[in-house]
Amino acid sequence: MPTRYPEEIKRKVVTLANNGKNQTEILKEYGIARSTLHKWIKHYNNSGSFKAKDNRTDKENELIKLQKENKQLKMENDILKQAALIMGRK
Fold first, then answer.
1. Fewest C-beta in 10 Å: which of 20, 34, 62, 71?
2. Residue ranges making up the domain that contains 61
3. Is the same domain home to 60 and 71?
4. E-strand spans in the chain?
5. Domain check: are 49 and 60 in the same one?
6. Are residues 37 and 74 in the same domain?
7. Of 36, 35, 41, nearest to 12 (Cα)?
8. Cβ atoms 65, 42 nearer than 8 A
9. Cα–Cα distance measured from residue 34 to residue 28, given in angstroms and rounded to the nearest whole number
10. In the chain, how many domains are there?
11. Triad 33, 43, 51: Cα angle to 5°
12. Which stretches are annotated as coiled coil (predicted)?
């Protein structure tokens, strides 16, 4: 199970990296994977947030919206099919 780090630790680590501290030292000191550190730096510098929803592009948001809508329409379609079968029996 992945380790969850508090926002304060993430901010501190990103601030250290942005202020020029050696990233290898940060990784050793905090026990963070290199890819995790890079992701935190990228997200925080882009939006000031570590949350995925705050770092999505417009296309990613549109895709998620369309996927939800598609799921809803499929469910409605299944309900209508069941209703048609029931009404056809009567």
1. 20
2. 56-90
3. yes
4. none
5. no
6. no
7. 41
8. no
9. 10
10. 2
11. 95
12. 56-83
